[in-house]
Amino acid sequence: VPTIGVLALQGDVREHVRALEAAGARTLRVRRPDELERVDGLVLPGGESTTMWRLARSFELLEPLRKRIEAGLPAYGSCAGMIMLADRIVDGAAGQETVGGIDMTVRRNAFGRQVDSFESGVALTGMGDTPYHAVFIRAPWVESVGDGVEIIGRADGGPNAGRIVAVRQGRLMATAFHPELTGDFRVHHYFADLVRRTTEEE
Ligand code: GLN
Questions:
Q1: Any catalytic annotation for residue 79?
Q2: 189 an active-site residue?
Q3: Among 60, 70, 119, 178, which one carries the catalytic annotation?
Q4: Which GO terms describe its molecular function (predicted)?
């Protein structure tokens, strides 16, 4: 059984740990570079991306995270974690950096200007036929993606219908919503499968 880390600097770490364990993974909370070395995949949770970035810097995790992701570590980011995995951000805090890895531009607090939090059905490619009941909390959206990025989910209905809210690029994936909160762990299953397949290949 592969070990999936949850970046545990800030955010809803416990909920992701539970969801991953429900999906059959072994988990490890990651706060130090040596813990990062021990995982086969990594979840970057929801929370607050500027705080997560500052803590990653002071815990000396930013460069190790970049290196491992560049070297092919599977990673999944939810909400603030999506921002962390974006190569480019719009409306970030002054000087805000990301880990990067996914060739996309993410707009921080994009939905938040109109409505702080909401729920919506999202059809997710490769995760079954029923729409995913997605919870958005001061969520970003994906403004644009590069050629290698597959769009796997778009917001459905309302003024923001069609906005990109889930993407995958090889071993990296991200959602603007919080699949750890609803008890429907399809996204965590999907990621755990991706990690399993990657470890079998290597
Ligand atoms: N608005 C937050 C940020 O900028 C993300 C919110 C969330 O993760 N629920 O990081």
A1: yes
A2: no
A3: 178
A4: glutaminase activity; pyridoxal 5'-phosphate synthase (glutamine hydrolysing) activity
Ligand 1 centroid–CA 49 distance in Å is 6
CA of 111 to the centre of ligand 1 (A): 11
The residue ranges of DSSP E strands in 97-147, in sequence order, are 102-107, 117-122, 132-137, 141-145
Q: Give the residue-averaged pLDDT of 184-191.
A: 97
Residue tagged 């702080």 (tokens): 116
* Active-site residue flag, 180: yes
Enumerate domains of the chain plus CATH numbers.
Answer: 3-201 (3.40.50.880)
* Contact of 74 with 80, CB cutoff 8 Å: no
Q: Are strands 150-154 and 164-169 parallel, antiparallel or unpaired?
A: antiparallel
The pLDDT value recorded for residue 113 is 63
pTM of the model: 0.96
pLDDT at residue 114 tops 70: no
Q: Is 138 annotated as a binding residue?
A: yes
pLDDT band at 158 (very low <50, low <70, confident <90, very high): confident
How many angstroms is it from 48 CA to the middle of ligand 1?
A: 4
